[in-house]
Automatic annotation (TrEMBL):
<feature type="transmembrane region" description="Helical">
    <location>
        <begin position="293"/>
        <end position="314"/>
    </location>
</feature>
<comment type="similarity">
    <text>Belongs to the purine permeases (TC 2.A.7.14) family.</text>
</comment>
<dbReference type="GO" id="GO:0016020">
    <property type="term" value="C:membrane"/>
</dbReference>
<feature type="transmembrane region" description="Helical">
    <location>
        <begin position="265"/>
        <end position="288"/>
    </location>
</feature>
<protein>
    <recommendedName>
        <fullName>Probable purine permease</fullName>
    </recommendedName>
</protein>
<dbReference type="GO" id="GO:0015211">
    <property type="term" value="F:purine nucleoside transmembrane transporter activity"/>
</dbReference>
<dbReference type="InterPro" id="IPR037185">
    <property type="entry name" value="EmrE-like"/>
</dbReference>
<feature type="transmembrane region" description="Helical">
    <location>
        <begin position="49"/>
        <end position="69"/>
    </location>
</feature>
<dbReference type="GO" id="GO:0005345">
    <property type="term" value="F:purine nucleobase transmembrane transporter activity"/>
</dbReference>
<keyword id="KW-0472">Membrane</keyword>
<feature type="transmembrane region" description="Helical">
    <location>
        <begin position="20"/>
        <end position="43"/>
    </location>
</feature>
<feature type="transmembrane region" description="Helical">
    <location>
        <begin position="228"/>
        <end position="245"/>
    </location>
</feature>
<feature type="transmembrane region" description="Helical">
    <location>
        <begin position="98"/>
        <end position="117"/>
    </location>
</feature>
<dbReference type="Pfam" id="PF16913">
    <property type="entry name" value="PUNUT"/>
</dbReference>
<dbReference type="InterPro" id="IPR030182">
    <property type="entry name" value="PUP_plant"/>
</dbReference>
<keyword id="KW-0812">Transmembrane</keyword>
<keyword id="KW-1133">Transmembrane helix</keyword>
């Protein structure tokens, strides 16, 4: 029986590791590609902030594909083993309590989408990416308050370094201002991006808290449902903004004058929606497989990739303060992961000692 339990635990751990790797991949693709494609839209003539906000969560119907695959898989397993799972024919797993929580977080995400899109419209991607690195400090703070996240000296050091790295950019906020943009618009974009970092830093631990308070077993299928509802309500917020701002009427005209051509205009919109959906699904999937703090760490770890790609693709300036900020961020990443490796080794040694002590006690009896 003990061997069966041990085997079950090993299988569960293996599945969680696989899901963690998969969601880290989704998060990496979305986190690096989303801002670049969004900036591409603004650089070549797009100027609708609410439309860009909509695209961040507007790809939510994609989630129906993995949900359908999950349902078909459950049905097949039930056909092979009729005495097995009773929920094989169940389509929706989410209970009202979790639905309400995901809807509220979705509305909050919709406003956060606008804050972020406003910032990207006015800042170089390399600058906005470094500002978003400050998000980790807010994620850590809210994780401590909401889910009682435990910190080590290494994780605290990482959060401090990442926060300072983002703050360095505020020393010369107008040094990389895009041509033709006023200082007022640039500062507004800077502040909106910081606000977006604060709000999303709150959202990640809030998602983890709802998992803990759900009063039902959290499976990956349920995570998919959660993301679908969250994205749906965020999209509704953005659609209301688009209606008020008359964005739907402007889209055809904007496509005609887009710098890369009409076809590429719509391609950019579709690609943006897909990439951002990967980002959001990856973020809450990492929370499911690990924690909100680790999700924030992964987002921050991808910063150098986004930074380098932005400089290459858009020929953005790479001033001294960006170099200092990037160095501090990299130092923070190394500090965090070194601490995690050390902490995991310590836990394994403690577990080995406990098992050896328990085995010795049983032998003596």
């Amino acid at each position: 029986m003990d061997k069966e339990q041990q085997q079950h635990q090993q299988n569960t751990s293996a599945v969680k590791r696989t899901l963690l790797i998969f969601n880290c991949f989704l998060l990496a693709v979305g986190n690096c590609g989303g801002p670049l494609v969004m900036r591409l839209y603004f650089v070549h003539g797009g100027n609708r902030v609410w439309l860009s906000s909509f695209l961040e969560t507007g790809g939510w119907p994609i989630i129906f594909i993995p949900l359908l695959i999950s349902y078909i898989r459950r049905r097949r397993l039930a056909a092979l083993d009729p005495s097995g799972s009773a929920d094989s024919s169940q389509i929706i797993f989410m209970k009202p309590r979790l639905f309400l929580a995901s809807a509220v977080i979705g509305i909050l995400t919709g406003f956060d989408d606008y804050l972020y899109a406003y910032g990207v419209a006015r800042l170089p991607v390399s600058t906005s990416a470094l500002i978003i690195a400050c998000q980790l400090a807010f994620t850590a703070g809210f994780a401590f308050l909401l889910v009682k996240q435990k910190f080590t000296s290494y994780s605290i050091n990482a959060v401090v370094l990442l926060t300072i790295g983002g703050a360095v950019l505020a020393l010369h906020t107008s040094g990389d201002r895009p041509a033709g943009e006023s200082n007022k618009d640039y500062i507004a974009g800077f502040l909106m991006t910081v606000a977006a970092a604060v709000v999303y830093g709150f959202i990640l631990p809030l998602v983890e808290l709802t998992y803990k308070k759900a009063r039902q077993q959290i499976t990956y299928t349920l995570v998919l449902e959660y993301q679908l509802i969250m994205s749906l309500f965020a999209t509704i917020v953005c659609v209301i903004g688009m209606l008020i701002n008359n964005d739907f009427q402007v889209i055809p005209r904007e496509a005609e004058t887009f710098g890369l051509g009409k076809f590429r205009y719509y391609l950019v919109l579709v690609l943006s929606a897909i990439l951002w959906q990967g980002f959001f699904l990856g973020a809450i999937g990492v929370i499911f497989s690990s924690s909100s703090l680790f999700s924030g760490i992964v987002i921050a770890v991808l910063l150098p990739v986004t930074e380098i790609l932005a400089v290459i693709i858009f020929n953005e300036k790479f001033q001294a303060e960006k170099a200092v900020s990037l160095a501090l961020n990299l130092w923070g990443f190394v500090s965090y992961f070194y601490g995690e490796i050390k902490n995991n080794k310590k836990k394994k040694l403690e577990l080995q000692r406990y098992e050896e002590t328990a085995s010795t006690q049983i032998t003596n009896v």
